[in-house]
From TrEMBL:
It comes from Streptomyces physcomitrii. The keyword Membrane does not apply. Gene3D superfamilies: 3.40.630.30. Keywords: Acyltransferase, Transferase. Pfam families: Acetyltransf_1 (PF00583). Residues 5-170 form the N-acetyltransferase domain. CDD domains: NAT_SF. This is GNAT family N-acetyltransferase. PROSITE patterns: GNAT. InterPro entries: Acyl_CoA_acyltransferase, Bact_Acetyltransf, GNAT_dom.
Amino acid sequence: MSTDAAISEANTDAKRAEVQDLFSRTFQGIAPNAIPAVKDDRLYAPLVLRYHDIETGQLAGAALTCRSEVAVGMTMMQRLEYAPVLDRHSVLDLMAVAPAFRGRGIGSALVREMEDRLKERGVRIWFGNATRDLETARLREFYARHGFTVLPDGQPLPDLLGRSWVLPTAEQPAFFFYKQIKKS
Ligand SMILES: CC(C)(COP(=O)(O)OP(=O)(O)OC[C@H]1O[C@@H](n2cnc3c(N)ncnc32)[C@H](O)[C@@H]1OP(=O)(O)O)[C@@H](O)C(=O)NCCC(=O)NCCS
């Protein structure tokens, strides 16, 4: 079976709960509702992908990309500044591969599949950050290998699509990364 066939979307709350379990095992202190509920999909426009190991059926990896907090906040306040770019951006928020499955290309397959699906949706700019608690040197290489511009430590994310995406109150991550998704 190809890697594509092992990837599917978590489009129900039950499937997302399994992904949340994997994220909770991987990241210390993440919110129990880090993945938006299906009822809120119109607001967050999430894409939650899962990778199942073909032999065991185990959930080996998963990733979440969705609208930025800034854009969601503005929308909830019925402010229109971000309305034109709501469907043009996405934030790669969380991605995890279970330790036993790392280094086999599963994370890479998830990134490629997310990018294809975001492109189909019309997303043009994809970005995120790595927090200091992670293995940031290896992550820099990972994102760079996937065509992201990886900013030096501490450098702020530039305006993208003419908008600022980082709340001034947000905790400073180790680094930001971003890439343009080109129409094919
Ligand atoms: C980052 C991660 C999703 C990559 O998944 P993967 O299936 O191992 O990735 P691939 O096999 O496609 O690529 C391997 C590359 O991933 C990166 N990587 C592997 N393990 C990693 C780890 N524990 N931490 C950070 N990056 C790692 C390295 O760049 C590695 O290349 P290298 O072996 O030459 O150093 C996975 O390692 C992971 O879940 N890490 C912990 C959580 C995390 O940092 N998530 C990303 C931020 S939300």
